[in-house]
Amino acid sequence: xxxxxxxxxxxxxxALIRSPGENALEQQYEAVKETASHxxxxxxxxxxxxxxxxxxxxxxxxxxxxxxxxxxxxxxxxEYAVGDTQGAIGFMFQNALCNAxxxxxxxxxxxxxxxxxxxxxxxxxxxxTPDKPIGAWMDHETAxxxxxxxxxxxxxxxxxxWRRVVPSPAPLExxxxxxxxxxxxxxxxxxxxxxxxxxxxxDSNGMLVAAQAVIDKxxxxxxxxxxxxxxxxxxxxxxxxxxxxxGSPQQRWLSQLSLAEAEALLQSSEFGAGSMAPKIEAxxxxxxxxxxxxxxxxxxxxxxxxxxxxxxxxxxC
Length: 317
Prior knowledge:
Elements: E1 6-11, H1 25-44, E2 48-53, H2 56-68, H3 78-103, E3 110-113, E4 117-119, E5 132-138, H4 140-150, E6 153-156, E7 162-166, E8 173-174, H5 177-185, E9 188-191, E10 198-202, E11 208-210, H6 217-227, E12 232-236, E13 242-244, E14 252-254, E15 256-258, H7 259-267, H8 277-289, E16 294-298, H9 303-307, E17 313-316
């Protein structure tokens, strides 16, 4: 069944939390199950799938629990918290995909969640300008108080409230790409690059050293898609199509965008910096390296329609 081209499917960490009051792990798993049921349609259509995922809210929750319990248990460094989310969210998707595949008669297809490292530059300027939102949204007063008492950096996030922010360096290499490629060749569905991958850099002896940061999952997913020569980069999100003049009376949905059109809109600041812009940037990175590839942005529920050309926004050269 999984004998065709490779598709990288990049699911956001925010997509697992349907509303501010639905952030318990059991509720996140329900969101994972729904997404998994739609990803199976991709597998059934013959695509070999690598599913990646974000971890913004979840990694922040882990750090906050660690800070609250610091007098009773050792605190969790950021890079280890990223690893924790790879295990927990990876398990959710692995379990949900196994069950969804079995329900559709594909129980022979195996699924594995792979702890993944992403190489970065330790001198990346992102370390001096933290801007990656993690954890919960807060009002300004609460965020300011926690910044003062916990030493956080904070920033307003896309009009939805204030959040803690951490460094987010550019991904340069997915360390486990050869292993992912081998697993795909064995028709295994792979869950990888959780939270953008655990950030690491190489010292003068070539040894991998972990860094305290959270890599953007869209940027890491685009890099992985390029390294795998993937035939498609699919980013499920909260809207079925990309729009211009989003939220205004002049809003217009886009069913197709060329690389040149997408680049022009991005440079004109048409897309929100904390919402659609990183997804468009990921599509540009992917298509520049894979000009014959297909990029899709749609909702999880819209995946089947988008594959058939009846929904979503299609990105091509």
